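Support request, please re-run this one:
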Amino acid sequence: MENRNSTLVGVLAGALLIAVLALGAIAGFAFVRPTTAAAQNVGVTGLRQVTVVGAGESRVAPDMATVQIGVETTAPTTQEALAQNNAQAQAIIDQVKQLGVEDRDIQTTGFNIYATYDNDGRTVNGYTVSNMVSVTIRDLAQASTLLDQVVQAGANRVYGISFGVSDPKAAEAQAREAAMANALERAEQLAKVAGAQLGGVLVVSENIGSGPVVPMPGVGRAMAEDMASVPMQAGEQVITARIQVTYELR
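Re-run finished. Output below.
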């Protein structure tokens, strides 16, 4: 009987020890786990500080454009469809080069071959081949003429004209300066409201971007004679910057 009591006491003591250790582990985890605010802290620990995000932009006239040009052909056999597509695609590339576009500005972006089916959806009645190239136009005055002539040469797919700046460094620098000035203005206002004085910069991070690309709808060969008269307005390219700055508070 005494031995049974000793065994029972030992089992209870072991269970109690395991429970204490488990509670200690949970408490330790809760102690070291950072709060959401601490995990997102980008400043310097132990200092009074304020973090702001400044926004700035600069505007510059685009000096280049990129357009997706392609040809899609359909024929009863893959050989016929491919032969037709190759001939038209080569004619398009030759025409683009004749207009002064360099090899480095012509890049194949897509090539596909797939079967076409009749109305029942089961019987193959032909094959379609598509070939797309991305063309960079560095002389914007030629943009309308280029689109007209590539359609005349056989292009039946024209997509997504977008404008850009070949060297955006100066515009990006202006956007950064505007964003930093905006961040300083915000931080000074917050410091004043808080009854403090703004100190030095502790942390800076940035995000540079540009305005969204507006795609151009697809154009078919039937519109070829109208392409030369399409008004191509490049407008302005907007370069944006967002600067996150942490300042010391005194």
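The chain has a mean pLDDT of 81. The helical segments are 2-32, 36-39, 78-98, 143-152, 169-193, 224-227.
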